[in-house]
Design brief:
The strands form two sheets. Strands 2-1-3-4 form a four-stranded parallel sheet, with helices on one face. Strands 6-5-7-8 form a four-stranded parallel sheet. Helix 4 links the parallel strand 3 and strand 4. Helix 2 packs across helix 5, helix 5 runs antiparallel to helix 6 and helix 6 runs parallel beside helix 10. Helices cover 50% and strands 12% of the residues. It is globular and about 60 Å long. The chain is built from ten helices and eight strands. The protein folds into two domains: 145 residues, Nitrogenase molybdenum iron protein domain (Rossmann fold); 100 residues, Nitrogenase molybdenum iron protein domain (Rossmann fold, 3-Layer(aba) Sandwich), CATH 3.40.50.1980. The protein is α/β, with parallel strands linked by helices. The N and C termini lie far apart (93 Å).
Length: 281
């Protein structure tokens, strides 16, 4: 009889240990596996998804979505993802790799963040307009609800709060830039066409379609800088500065860095507006 009680107690202890192990399962195991193409999307997904998402960014800091190629490890990691939020506006990375990415995980939901956004020609940089960012956030929220409908209220509340922050950002940019007469700026890579369109600015690009500027283009940029009385040449940190420095030297101006791909979206866009205002003061 004593032996039976001992065996019973041992069984209870083993069950408790197993239950304890299950209870100690990593919280990350229950999160939605989300993959995005660029860093600003990470900000959108984290703002909406909060602690329910685990986000992987394909194009890392410092890399350009026009030229970046994913590592074999990144492609393998896609196999466990639940949802991929693509920019959807013609980013070179997605044009080159989305077919391969979806083949790695055919069950993964793919959401087009550009849904509902009017494109400007072949310009893929839709996220650099806070108004477009609001539509992208709406699409993120809809995608998360599709894969996790039980937490729809949570995602919706987070989305609404972030949309209010984007409205505040939009108001800040208008307040910072609306009063100027000179509304042109020169930039090496044309990353801010949607920003310029939204805030009635003229973006003068040095390089276009991924090509280095010819001597004729360089001279045209110098002429435009003189025409618009420009003192700055804006450069994204993902690009070399040689041609921009040449133009800045010719016009007696300076190089200013603005980032189209910073993960701290709202703070970065405020910084961009402040940097552009230097040219317009």
């Amino acid at each position: 009889m004593l032996k039976k009680w001992i065996l019973l107690l041992i069984g209870i202890v083993l069950v408790s240990l197993v239950s304890g192990c299950i209870a100690e399962k990593s919280p990350d195991d229950s999160k939605i596996g989300v993959v995005v193409t660029i860093l600003p999307q990470e900000a959108f997904v984290k703002a909406v998804g909060g602690d329910h998402v685990d986000v992987t960014v394909m194009v890392p800091p410092g890399a350009s979505p026009h030229t970046y190629e994913p590592t074999p490890g990144q492609l393998r990691d896609l196999e466990g993802a639940d949802i991929y939020f693509k920019v959807g506006s013609g980013v070179d990375f997605e044009l080159d790799w989305m077919d391969k990415i979806t083949a790695m995980n055919p069950e993964m939901l793919v959401v087009d963040c550009s849904e509902g956004i009017a494109k400007i020609g072949d310009d893929p940089h839709i996220w650099n307009s806070p108004v477009n960012a609001k539509k992208m956030v709406e699409n993120v929220c809809a995608g998360l609800i599709q894969v996790d409908p039980l937490n729809a209220a949570y995602y919706t509340a987070n989305k609404d709060e972030y949309l209010r922050e984007l409205d505040d950002l939009d108001g800040y940019i208008h307040a910072r830039l609306d009063g100027f007469t000179n509304r042109a700026f020169m930039i090496y890579h044309p990353s801010f066409g949607y920003f310029a369109d939204e805030y009635n600015l003229t973006q003068i690009a040095i390089a276009d379609e991924g090509k280095e500027p010819t001597p004729q283009v360089m001279q045209s940029c110098i002429d435009n800088a003189e025409r618009y009385n420009l003192s700055y040449v804006y450069v994204a940190p993902q690009f070399a500065t040689q041609h921009a420095e040449t133009i800045a030297h010719e016009i007696g101006g300076e190089i200013v860095f603005i980032d189209p791909l910073d993960k701290n979206y709202i703070a970065n866009m405020r910084s961009v507006a402040a940097s552009l205002s230097l040219e317009m003061e």
